[in-house]
Amino acid sequence: MSAAGGSGGLIGLYGGTFDPVHLGHIRTALQLKRELPFEQIRMLPAGRPPHRPPPEANAAQRWYMLTRVTGRDSGLIADDRELRRPGPSYAIDTLTELRSELGEDRPLAWILGMDAFAGFDRWHRWREIPRLAHLVVMTRPGAEPPREGPVADLLAERRGDSPQALLERPGGRVLVWPVEPLDFSATDIRACVRRGKPPRFLVPGVIWAYIQREGLYRSEP
Length: 221
Ligand code: ATP
Hints:
The protein is 36% helix and 16% strand. The protein has helices at residues 23-35, 59-68, 81-84, 91-102, 114-118, 129-132, 150-158, 165-168, 186-194, 205-214; strands spanning 10-16, 38-45, 76-78, 108-113, 134-139, 174-178. It has a six-stranded parallel beta sheet with strand order 3-2-1-4-5-6, sandwiched between helices. The chain binds adenosine-5'-triphosphate (ATP).
């Protein structure tokens, strides 16, 4: 890959199940958008996440919720390519597709949590991913990067500390970036709804209204 002169701004790719999208996703994405030189961050709901049980809400419902909280002038954009693609949603396929759409020189950064990064060597064709994009690893106090093994080696080889370095090349760097900790997950929200408790302050009001309207997450999966 050549240097990224004049190829357009940095695009962040924030993958997830978004079952449902919640304030942990939105606030961290907005924080990254504010603090790193992203032109936009695309939120990519997985069609069939490869490493976990299938989502409880269907693809149309997860997509609808995501579109309620992205767009306008937020710089967060919902991207449905993984929902449209048959088979398991592998990051490598998404990146290959984006590379051919956006060109070899456009800087791309795959965003993931430190927990996901710790198991990165189990991702499909994981060694090819840093050749196609940077990695931005969201970390929080107490979340330590792996100290040994292939992921620790990847970090030692490719770690950079400057956000500006993400603009200098189309991919290849790993930036570990601290985000404000919000200690809950979509699993907690589904458990809350199942117990008949509103997930106050965990999801935006429009998402809670939709969960109720559709009767989502009421019964055991
Ligand atoms: P589940 O509980 O169903 O596993 P989740 O809330 O962890 O879901 P996902 O949609 O699978 O959400 O996660 C997508 C990405 O969002 C991951 O990279 C994860 O690290 C990040 N993420 C999830 N919850 C939070 C949170 N509270 N704060 C910051 N990042 C989060």
